[in-house]
Design a protein that fits this description.
The complex is a heterodimer of chains A (about 550) and B (about 300).
Chain A: E1 2-3, H1 15-23, E2 29-33, H2 39-47, H3 51-54, H4 56-75, E3 78-79, H5 81-84, E4 89-94, E5 103-104, E6 107-108, H6 109-122, E7 129-134, E8 140-146, H7 149-158, H8 168-179, E9 185-191, E10 207-211, E11 219-229, E12 236-246, E13 251-259, E14 262-271, E15 277-284, E16 289-296, E17 308-313, E18 319-324, H9 330-338, E19 342-347, H10 349-354, E20 363-367, E21 379-383, E22 388-389, E23 392-399, E24 405-406, E25 425-430, E26 436-441, E27 444-451, E28 456-460, H11 474-487, E29 493-496, H12 533-554
Parallel strand pairs in A: 4-7, 4-9, 9-10, 18-19, 18-20, 20-21, 21-28
Antiparallel strand pairs in A: 1-3, 5-6, 7-8, 11-12, 12-15, 13-14, 13-16, 16-17, 17-29, 22-23, 23-25, 24-26, 26-27, 27-28
Helix pairs in contact in A: 1-4, 4-12, 6-7, 9-11
Chain B: H1 6-9, H2 12-28, E1 38-39, E2 48-53, H3 65-71, E3 75-79, E4 81-82, E5 86-92, H4 104-121, E6 125-131, E7 139-142, H5 148-157, H6 167-175, E8 183-188, H7 197-207, E9 211-218, E10 229-235, E11 241-246, H8 248-271, E12 275-280, H9 285-295
Parallel strand pairs in B: 5-6, 5-8, 8-9, 9-12
Antiparallel strand pairs in B: 1-4, 2-3, 6-7, 10-11
Helix pairs in contact in B: 2-4, 2-9, 4-5, 4-9, 6-7
The chains are: A alpha/beta (about 550), B alpha/beta (about 300).
């Protein structure tokens, strides 16, 4: 056994005056009586009391010495032998998912987890250390290694649940990393078992799971609510809502969808146990729209946060197109005018070159001109480019080419028909390595380029007037596909959820396992471990003192 | 501590009250002859008592010849002889009397003085016998109120004895002196060497064929065991000490024994027609004396 303050044993010397006072028998109060006539018989009975009654005084001395010893023992702040070994390093992982907000027995799972974690911190010994990690997508260390219980508990109080970006796997990996090198690590995760994905056994190795929540929860909640722009038409959107019902009994609810606080749809839904319900809805608007889905007429279930979901669809913004052409091109201009939400302007090649760095256009169309090499990483459509560049090298001409093949499944060529498109002539350009040939004329690339996340350039190797494209819809459709593909990169839907979530991506409110809880192990901390040994010693000393006072003062003679 | 100063023991207030009691006593016996204790003796008064057959040796001058003429039998005519009463006040001088507040011995002497005054007022003889002393110094039965002051001085100078308590022996010692029969007023706390000592003493008095009255004097503090605690009690009489823990049970047992003893005394006196007056020193002496006078239980 070790003692944090061994000098306190000096207080044991107080036993000497206690013993001396007991040895020096205090003179009893003397009282004169007129006669022993009535005392004689009583005194005979008193003198015949049991032996232990006669040594009552010495028992009192022993009790007082014991009290003194226990008090001194408490002052030395003892560390029992079973605790002085193995300094522990405790890693506490909190699950901040939205399901932890489920209310059970008057308090949420999150509150319960905080309470359990706090109790575990209270049971830390003086030389133990602990750290707290929040299981967010990017794990957050709420408090670094410390032995100060007060700081750890403060960090617990400041933690919050209801995160959508929760993922215990990185937090567990971090915990294993922190535990590496520690002599006696102890990892604990406080969770209700509703995880965003499967956790590998390696991550759960040597991890104590403190399971929270009931196995069976009655909860119906919106698991998915998303809206995105539809490419079928300008301004069109498609929304989707999915509701999960976790209960053994069916349930009837009302689902209300509002668009900019105006009722969009109200539907009575009959939920079957274990079967999700979903619905799509459509509409058209080019403005920004706020959608809100609510579950109405629902009796209180385990989680109310998933009864409401909001999604915001941003307004369609015009795509800026810059046409670089020495002169006006009526067909091209008309084609650009025909597209919705396109703001175009024309610049001469010289102007475009000078103001290249200030240009905010998302698409540049070079008509009979060539782009600068630095524009290789921008979205450009090259019509009849000359010379060579990042788009390839001119190797000759094609006389009256006929498009024999094209990739109809390409997003750029959707709804584009190259049938019987005739050219008078076209340049034969050798595409650079990595370029994709979208249309060819008997093996010779006609429409080619790269249109992916890294580069966006497309080449049309002939003048538009040299073909009958001006009379066809192919080119405007192609142009529309190009513009539409530029819009797909923008965030089109953002979800606003109750709570502190601020993600801008389309996301799910909760995963499909929201209502189920796996019970792996439940840790219970004995309440007495919260109190150190010295506290118990002081308590025992006080109890002894009360017992001694009770026995001695009452002077029980029976 | 018992007082031995006359002025302190019998102050002028006390004496004034005695004077009043004396007047009251005389008023109560108004119409009677003084020294009314009668005894059937050969006397020279005019009041006829009875006839007695003449036997050889009687004085023939008292033969009633008229009765002889009538009955042809020699008889003597007897007359009532009025004689004064000898009241013997036996005062317990044991150390147990030197206890209490006021001290029982002082209280006893005051009561005795009062009763003696009433006795003397009745032209009876009052004598004081301090019990407990080996060499008994008595105040012989005397008559006349002019002796009262000397009696008070005697009482004031009366010492307490250092002998161990022995009520029976003290009484026996006095009886062995063959005092004149009369009335015995035994003033004591009746705390003997054992619980039967007082009864044996009373038996002795009964056997002496005196008219007995007992005045038991107690202090309030003797009625119970006292405050609880651990004490070393010391006996006033023997000086011995004992350690005792006074708790509720001890107090209860003490009370029980005390009450039983008192009841036994009362029962004994009742059964043997002994007048018993149990007093506490908290009762004023004048009230006691008035009670004795009016109720006549002790003093007739």
């Amino acid at each position: 056994m070790n003692f944090l303050w061994p000098a306190a044993w000096g207080f044991a010397l107080l036993a000497l005056p206690v013993i001396v006072f007991y040895l020096i028998r205090p003179r009893m109060q003397r009282r004169k009586v007129s006669t022993f006539l009535f005392w004689d018989q009583i005194l005979i009975r008193v003198h015949q009391t049991p032996f232990w009654r006669k040594i009552r005084r010495w028992i009192s001395l022993l009790l007082q010495l014991l009290f003194l010893f226990l008090l001194v023992f408490a002052l030395t702040h003892p560390i029992p032998w079973w605790q002085e070994k193995h300094k522990k390093s405790v890693i506490i992982i909190l699950d901040p998912s939205a399901s932890m907000l489920a209310i059970e027995d008057g308090k949420s799972r999150w509150e319960h987890s905080i309470e359990l974690a706090s109790r575990r911190i209270s049971s830390l010994r003086a030389f133990d250390e602990a750290t707290i990690i929040s299981g967010t997508g990017s794990p957050k260390v709420l408090h670094s290694w410390t032995s100060r219980k007060k700081d750890l508990k403060n960090a617990l109080r400041k933690a919050a649940a209801g995160r959508l970006d929760y993922d215990l796997r990185p937090a567990l990996a971090l915990a294993h990393h922190l535990a590496h090198g520690r002599a006696h690590p102890e990892m604990m995760v406080f969770t209700d078992g509703v995880w965003s994905g499967e956790i590998s056994p390696e991550l759960l190795e040597n991890v104590e799971i403190v399971a929270l929540g009931r196995k069976e929860n009655f909860n119906s909640g919106i698991s998915t609510f998303s809206v995105r722009r539809s490419f079928s038409g300008p301004g069109e959107f498609t929304g989707w809502i999915q509701i999960h019902h976790n209960s053994s009994a069916p349930r009837q609810i009302e689902v209300e969808i509002r668009q900019n606080d105006r009722l969009h749809d109200l539907q009575t839904v009959h939920l079957e146990p274990g079967k999700p319900w979903s619905k799509t809805f459509e509409g058209r608007t080019q403005e920004a729209v706020q959608f809100k889905a609510m579950i109405r007429n629902s009796t209180a279930d385990a989680m109310v946060v998933d009864d409401i979901a909001e999604v915001r669809l941003d307004a369609m913004t015009p795509v800026e197109v810059e046409m670089v052409s020495a002169s006006s091109h009526p067909f091209l201009e008309a084609a650009l005018d025909s597209l919705n939400q396109v703001a175009w302007n024309r610049r001469s090649p010289a102007e475009a070159g000078n103001q290249l760095h200030r240009s905010t256009a998302k698409l540049r169309i070079y008509n009979n001109s060539s782009p600068m090499p630095s524009e290789a990483d921008k979205a450009v459509l090259l019509i009849n480019p000359k010379g060579e560049g990042f788009w390839g090298r001119e190797v000759g001409t094609m006389d009256q080419p006929l498009i024999s093949e094209w990739k109809a499944d390409s997003a750029l060529l959707r709804f584009v028909s190259w049938d019987t498109i005739r050219f008078s002539n076209a340049r034969e350009i050798q595409p650079p390595p990595g370029a994709e040939v979208l249309a060819s004329s008997f093996g010779k690339p006609v429409v080619f380029g790269r249109w992916d996340d890294q580069q966006r350039w497309l080449v049309w190797p002939a003048e538009l007037e040299s073909s009958d494209l001006v009379f066809r819809t192919a080119f405007p459709i192609l142009l529309g596909n190009i513009v539409q593909s530029l819009r797909q990169g923008d965030p089109e839907a953002s979800s606003l959820l109750p709570g502190s979530s601020e993600t801008q991506l389309e996301c799910r409110l909760s995963n499909n396992q929201e209502a189920s809880a796996m019970r792996k192990s439940s840790a219970t901390f004995a309440w007495w471990t919260e109190f150190p040994l010295w506290w118990w010693a002081a308590f025992a000393a006080l109890a002894w003192l009360l017992i001694e006072w009770r026995l001695y003062t009452r002077r029980i003679t029976e | 501590m018992a007082s031995n100063q006359v002025d302190e023991l019998f102050d002028h207030v006390f004496l004034k009250r005695l004077e009043a009691l004396g007047i009251a006593a005389r008023q109560l016996v108004k119409g009677r002859q003084r020294a009314e204790r009668r005894s059937v003796q050969r006397g020279v008064s005019v009041e006829f008592a009875e006839y007695r057959p003449f036997v050889f040796g009687d004085d023939f001058r008292y033969i009633d010849w008229n009765a002889y003429a009538r009955w042809r039998q020699l008889v003597l005519k007897l007359f009532v002889e009025e004689e004064d009463l000898h009241v013997h006040f036996l005062l317990d001088c044991s150390r147990s009397m030197d206890w209490g507040s006021p001290v029982k011995f002082d209280y006893a002497r005051q009561v005795l003085a009062g009763l003696a005054w009433m006795t003397l007022s009745n032209m009876d003889r009052a004598g004081v016998v301090p019990l407990g002393h080996l060499n008994l110094t008595q105040w012989p039965p005397s008559r006349g109120r002019d002796r009262f002051l000397q009696l008070l001085r005697f009482l004031a100078a009366c010492p307490l004895t250092d002998e161990p308590p022995q009520l029976e022996n003290n009484v026996h010692r006095w009886i062995s002196l063959q005092p004149r029969k009369g009335m015995v007023v035994y003033i004591s706390d009746l705390w003997g060497r054992d619980q039967d000592d007082s009864f044996r003493a009373l038996d002795r008095l009964r056997y002496s064929r005196n008219e007995i009255s007992v005045i038991q004097i107690m202090d309030q503090g003797e009625l119970n065991a006292g405050a609880p605690g651990e004490f070393e009690i010391e006996d006033c009489e023997s000086g011995s000490r004992r350690s005792v823990i006074i708790d509720s049970r001890t107090a209860r047992e003490y009370q029980e024994r005390f009450v039983n003893y008192q009841n036994a005394l009362r029962k004994y006196c009742r059964s043997h027609q002994i007048s018993l007056l149990q007093l506490q020193t908290s009762t004023p002496v004048s009230d006691v004396l008035m009670k004795c006078l009016v109720e006549g239980g002790v003093v007739r």
